[in-house]
Amino acid sequence: MAGNSIGNLFKITTFGESHREAIGGIIDGCPAGLKLDLAFIQEELAKRKPGQSKIVTQRKEDDLIEILSGVFEGVTTGTSIGFVIKNTNQKSQDYSHIKDKYRPSHADYTYQSKYGTRDYRGGGRSSARETACRVVGGAIAKQVLLHYGIYVNAYVAQVGDIKVTKHYSALDLSTTYTNSVRCPDKTVADLMYNRIDEIRKEGDTIGGVVSCIITGAPTGLGEPVFDRLEADLAKAMLSINASKGFEIGSGFDGVAQKGSEHNDEFFCHPEHVEGPTKRIYTKTNNSGGVQGGISNGEDIYFNVAFKPVATIMQKQQTVNEQLQEVDITGRGRHDPCVLPRATVIVESMAALVMVDHLLKNRTTQL
Amino acid sequence: MAGNSIGNLFKITTFGESHREAIGGIIDGCPAGLKLDLAFIQEELAKRKPGQSKIVTQRKEDDLIEILSGVFEGVTTGTSIGFVIKNTNQKSQDYSHIKDKYRPSHADYTYQSKYGTRDYRGGGRSSARETACRVVGGAIAKQVLLHYGIYVNAYVAQVGDIKVTKHYSALDLSTTYTNSVRCPDKTVADLMYNRIDEIRKEGDTIGGVVSCIITGAPTGLGEPVFDRLEADLAKAMLSINASKGFEIGSGFDGVAQKGSEHNDEFFCHPEHVEGPTKRIYTKTNNSGGVQGGISNGEDIYFNVAFKPVATIMQKQQTVNEQLQEVDITGRGRHDPCVLPRATVIVESMAALVMVDHLLKNRTTQL
Amino acid sequence: MAGNSIGNLFKITTFGESHREAIGGIIDGCPAGLKLDLAFIQEELAKRKPGQSKIVTQRKEDDLIEILSGVFEGVTTGTSIGFVIKNTNQKSQDYSHIKDKYRPSHADYTYQSKYGTRDYRGGGRSSARETACRVVGGAIAKQVLLHYGIYVNAYVAQVGDIKVTKHYSALDLSTTYTNSVRCPDKTVADLMYNRIDEIRKEGDTIGGVVSCIITGAPTGLGEPVFDRLEADLAKAMLSINASKGFEIGSGFDGVAQKGSEHNDEFFCHPEHVEGPTKRIYTKTNNSGGVQGGISNGEDIYFNVAFKPVATIMQKQQTVNEQLQEVDITGRGRHDPCVLPRATVIVESMAALVMVDHLLKNRTTQL
Amino acid sequence: MAGNSIGNLFKITTFGESHREAIGGIIDGCPAGLKLDLAFIQEELAKRKPGQSKIVTQRKEDDLIEILSGVFEGVTTGTSIGFVIKNTNQKSQDYSHIKDKYRPSHADYTYQSKYGTRDYRGGGRSSARETACRVVGGAIAKQVLLHYGIYVNAYVAQVGDIKVTKHYSALDLSTTYTNSVRCPDKTVADLMYNRIDEIRKEGDTIGGVVSCIITGAPTGLGEPVFDRLEADLAKAMLSINASKGFEIGSGFDGVAQKGSEHNDEFFCHPEHVEGPTKRIYTKTNNSGGVQGGISNGEDIYFNVAFKPVATIMQKQQTVNEQLQEVDITGRGRHDPCVLPRATVIVESMAALVMVDHLLKNRTTQL
Fold first, then answer.
1. Distance in angstroms (rounded) separating the CA atoms of residues B305 and A246
2. For residues D282 and D273, what is the distance between their CA atoms, to the nearest angstrom?
3. Torsions phi, psi for B60 (to 5 deg)
4. How many C-beta neighbours within 10 Å does residue B362 have?
5. Three-class secondary structure of residue A94 per DSSP
6. Model pTM above 0.90
7. CATH code where residue A16 lies
8. CA nearest D114: which of C292, C149, C248?
9. Most A CBs within 10 Å: which of B125, B164, B223, B260, as the mutation test of the A interface?
10. Which distant-in-sequence residues (6+ apart) come within 8 Å of D178 by Cβ?
11. With an 8 Å Cβ cutoff, are C80 and B116 in contact?
């Protein structure tokens, strides 16, 4: 209710500001019996970590995960999993210049207005640092999904106006994390890299789009009416800092199509007309793997739009707490483009939603 | 959890299939003391009602609302408001031809797969008829918002590739419902009307985009991290039948911008630097009225993408319950374009989200 | 949140006042595939119905259930089940004398104070009439439980100071509903009947205790820490009108015992040490079937205390809305003792809790 | 849903086992602007801490609270409050003898049965150590209540068959924590102390009753139908380890009364018939401060029954994981009676419920 939890049966609740000792969270509802791979969680955190290349913020955070409960002899016990990540790089002095100024397109003013107070250091609770906790939750959710043969893969599909034009099926998604942009089309990745670096030198920032593909999901995930799978995915994605849009399947482009073009006709696969793998298939997948809010067994794919990072190294006009008009210039270590670090966050949020619906779907039939 | 409720403090739960006696719902958490305007609810339902013009389905439903509780002497009592809407036009025979066939891009297969059974008549629970209950909830929510000077206005911004190009501030939104397309730009409305009518004659369907503007919202609505205002709006919009995308503020177009272009600089208005109307303003509004997940007092505006209606009057290939490949051709009375009837549904879902957050925000400070 | 829903995965939301057209509710999360026995629901409602004997209120309500959705060809579809029960016996004139007076130990004053308004007719939302909806939910829940061999049986264990002294295992619980008191000990039932009738003639009322036994529950129901099975049962029972206490297993009497007396030692049953019926047993059952908040396979049993009905046919002192001290005397048709009609309500609430936990427990292991 | 959270608007989620590095939790929804008194939280924890006297367990835990977020410059910011308490006294070797044995009336068997695994050390998640996190949440909730002049006071009212016979109004509740039994009737406290010490020497344990009184609560707290104030209190109390019963107001004793005796007649206080303190009063308070599920401004009082502690220093029969019947004898450091340490836990749970309802009640009227 107060915004720090997501999920029903598989639920994560988080806490933490960027300039305190630690951030952390609790995962409640993780099924018992999962052999938890801690190294994998750490690897996932590394994908989000600052300081990995020239085109992301140069802050250094170790982001070491400490699991405090819910795991015994390496296996989940079904009880709540508490974890903390220490903040090792809190340079509070970096923020003295914005103590009483509202940074444009940041949450300073809205937090102050809502709560009557705020931790101004590094954005406090509104800092993107909280997404590290999402990655921990997502890394555990991914391990549950792995058990059921479900995979979540995101990549940077657009930076500024540079786009990946190939269909995702023509890309080798296993190469996404081999470059610092997190784009599996090497040629486009290079263009993106240069664009971001250029923007960085200007002291400016740029936006982009992350695409995400979920493969191996069974039919039946998603609830009718309000808790549709795509509705929960949309909420999860729009809950990420700087995201401004979500589209699934044909999305905004599909609106110009006719029904006769857009409809996904069904067909049978002779090897899957009976037995445990029985299902039907669609010739096209404009639906993006969901029909009536429920997964149909095809790939689930969607895009998430991210605006340019709000902190820029240029002078801007703003207002201070005394309601005086003042200038402000960004300082410190910031990302010129959030996209490279956002892919793993998109994957994490998607994985959290998928596990929640996977568990819900167990309660559907007598 | 099972999908038939939305909202926390102001919550609607619905029930009903298109081919039973009635549909209905319960609104829980409506504040006491609201003088409920029943005629307004009925007018809102009329905006969604089928059979209003040549370009929508010719089904006839009276859609008469019966409020069964929660109102005493015309005023809400704070207890749950139960309501029903009788189904007066159930032509079950229309659906015998699809009894055991999975209609492409409909929910037939996913419901059957999830539940092991389904009411095939008119799509059962997946029928867009359930949206009438959302309109009832929305019409009550709008009356709460009206009390606080908050207004929600949606309009059809695109049909196929025909778009409204004017900024919403250049449109007279009070004229939206004066034409059957629900587009406040009369010239564009005419083009849209002709396009839909053309598509209808082809036995085909077409998609489009609804834009929605919320004015008068105070600062402070929305919760940090997961329950951001835009996240809850995104969920609400993606929960509507046939919707495939959501974008707020600059949305997908904003990703190509630089931070220096996109950032909304703050300024003061000399008449609002102290007293009860004290607030600050932004020069631009690429944020779409939310920053850090919380409303900043500017207009909240967003777009929703709708795919073309799945039922077409043309022959398509599909599969039946026996997993045989068969042909199917749409029959009955269907919409060639969902957009004209979708505007009030978008407004309703937006209003429900806004009231929920309005109430939540009362609990924020000591 | 606003109080008209209970349950998470199997959830009921209700509406309705005693002096409007109808009451009703929505059950969300009922598993698909249940062949629903409508006659059984009607029979359950009959157990709660007024006017069945001299010792309960002489109001006449038909309490005919109408299921409006969620069932197709007699089988649940997994979607929300809406239902209404018409109010056929609204004598609003009976209540004019209490229009502006706060009846002692009723909810008149607290509702007025909380909401600033209230439907004074028959207690409005606070009327025990709402419990009919609980019985509908319970009757559906019982059918789910029946599928898994779980049975819920309640009976009147005490009226005033007349108590059933036999252990429940010495009673034939199938005879509970054969007498109007709903007590399976015929001798005690007669004493109770006479006591209630005596009280009725005095224009007074009397309280009592309902005992409830759940048999056939598997191990594993209940969640650790806050959502213990007994915690959810306690909440469900204290949510019933006029209930003032709950105790499980040894309850309040057990506090005087030593651990060495109270502990339930385990043993094995040679026929259940392996295979699907493998489990262990306890020699005694002071725990009441739950340990650490989770069912252990033994009978679950608990007691619920009900205070005497607040409406009495005697003169009492009170205060009116103008805050003047005034006299009040009960009129109309009221129960001298709520116990005979409460047994089926206790069973219903217990059944709702059990199904909710049965479904939750499906999500516990990988 | 998975049991580790309680509350809606003011919600606590906890984690932790007794034999890991730390336990902790997250409080979400604490209003911003509360000057948080950390020393008070530590004092509250001290009331629950083991090792304080001869009649409680001799384990030594420092129970130092570390607040990791949600507080800035000593004041709550409205964002989630994360906290941890290190476990400094984990003697895992103490539990090797019970590694594969199910301790009678403990949660060993039910956890193993539910989850297929368990952390057997110190009871794992079922350990009463988790109640330290409840005390932290309660200590913060009490500070919110203090701001509104609401006080929660519990005391030991019964140990074995030794009872406090005085009405709570005849006791000085400020003296409760001046003795190790936590009973404000000094004479009875001495009797209780001796009884517990006697039991301790026998290697046995004993149960008892905690009474709790909430003063200063305004009218209007509690929601109708299912979320009655007493229902939420009952759930909160039955969620505490070893609790077996709850009664409010007249409770189980009240069932033998007549309505004419039990009803709480209203009267006016001449100083409170208008203005901000306007309210009406009851001559008696058999209702226990709630009518129709909503507080009426009178004292709220209730009792909670606790069974004798399950761990005894005597030989008992049980079963091991291999389903063989074996003997077991308690070892280590355990409480002969849970009551002295339970009072602050009862207070904490009551405070959590009260704040949650206090916030909910802000959303009731337009």
1. 10
2. 14
3. -115, 120
4. 17
5. helix
6. yes
7. 3.60.150.10
8. C292
9. B260
10. none
11. no
- Please report the ipTM that was assigned to this predicted complex: 0.97
Cα–Cα dist B155/B158, whole Å = 9
Chain A residues near residue B107 by CB distance under 8 angstroms = 224, 291-294
- Residue B364 pLDDT > 90: yes
Hunting for tokens 């506090």 — which residue is that? C255
For chain B, how many structural domains are there in total?
A: 1
Would you call A131 helix, strand, or coil by DSSP?
A: helix
C28/B13 CB distance under 8 A: yes
Helix%, strand%, coil% for chain A, nearest 5? 35, 25, 45
Per-residue pLDDT 10s for chain D (366 aa) are 789 999 999 999 999 998 889 999 999 999 999 999 999 999 999 999 887 788 777 777 789 999 999 999 999 999 999 999 999 876 656 677 788 999 999 999 999 999 999 998 888 899 999 999 999 999 999 999 999 999 999 999 999 999 999 999 999 999 999 999 999 999 999 999 999 999 999 999 999 999 999 999 999 999 999 999 999 999 999 999 999 999 999 999 999 999 999 999 999 999 998 888 899 999 999 999 999 999 999 999 999 999 999 999 999 999 999 999 999 988 777 889 999 999 999 999 999 999 999 999 999 999
User: Residue A65, CB half-sphere, CA atoms under 13 Å: how many?
Assistant: 27
* CA gap C205, C309 in Å, rounded: 6
Name the residue among A266, D112, D199, A314 with its Cα closest to residue B328. Answer: A266
Instruction: Specify if B265 maps to a domain.
Output: no
Residues A201 and A204: their CA atoms lie apart, in Å, by 7
Q: Indicate whether C97 belongs to any domain.
A: yes
Residue entry with tokens 């309960």:
C56
Q: Which helix (H) or strand (E) holds B233?
A: helix B229-238
Q: Which region, left, alpha or beta, applies to residue A119 given φ > 0 means left and ψ of -120 to 50 means alpha? A: beta
Identify which of B212, B244, B240 has the alpha carbon closest to the alpha carbon of residue B130: B240
Beta-ladder partners of A213: A153, A301
Beta strands in A175-248 (DSSP E): 208-215, 243-248
AA identity, residue D9: L
**Residue B232 and residue B247: Cα distance in Å, rounded?**
12
Q: Considering only the beta carbons, identify the residue of D113, D236, D360 that sits closest to C219.
A: D113
D305: its two tokens: 């029954």
Report d(CA C109, CA D136) in Å as an integer.
Answer: 35
Q: Which of D115, D127, D130, D355 has the highest number of chain A CBs within 10 A, making it the mutation to test binding with A?
A: D115
How do residues C259-274 score in pLDDT, each as one tens digit? 999 999 999 999 998 8
D336/D343 Cα distance (integer angstroms): 15
Amino acid of residue B213: I
What residues form DSSP beta bridges with A172? none
Concatenate the DSSP letters of all residues of C151-165 into one string.
Answer: EEEEEEEEETTEE--
User: Residue B55 falls within a domain, yes or no?
Assistant: yes
Token pair belonging to D162: 């030794």
Compute the distance between CA of residue D188 and CA of residue D194 in angstroms, rounded to an integer: 10
Given a contact cutoff of 8 angstroms between Cβ atoms, the answer to whether B203 and B309 are in contact is no
- Residue D360 · residue C1 · CB < 8 Å: yes
Residue D210 lies in a domain: yes
Domain that holds residue D221: 5-249+287-361
Q: Do A68 and D25 touch (CB under 8 A)?
A: no
Q: Note whether D108 contacts A: Cβ–Cβ < 8 A.
A: no
The whole-angstrom separation of Cα D111 and Cα B224 is 35
Closest CA to B129 of B232, B233, B57: B57
